[in-house]
């Protein structure tokens, strides 16, 4: 039995991919700084970075037939990204209204 067929290895891989994709997101936010706020295209692209990173890293598991965990991880990353940027947008709207 190969390592990819063990459930514990896949779970640890999904957890690692989740944290790696969000660390890439926070590095993106730190690297661009104020440019995200000034450019709507970068702002929208930033919401999808964790989704794109996790999607590219889970292709190996998708090819092996482990679709449920791979799709669940990508959907979770997509919704967390949208929720994070909705919160940031609300904070920016509140800061600009005063």
TrEMBL record:
Give UniProt keywords alphabetically.
Membrane, Transmembrane, Transmembrane helix
Record's superkingdom? Archaea
Q: Where are the transmembrane segments?
A: 7-30, 36-59, 71-95
Organism expressing this protein natively: Saccharolobus shibatae
Q: What is this protein called?
A: Uncharacterized protein
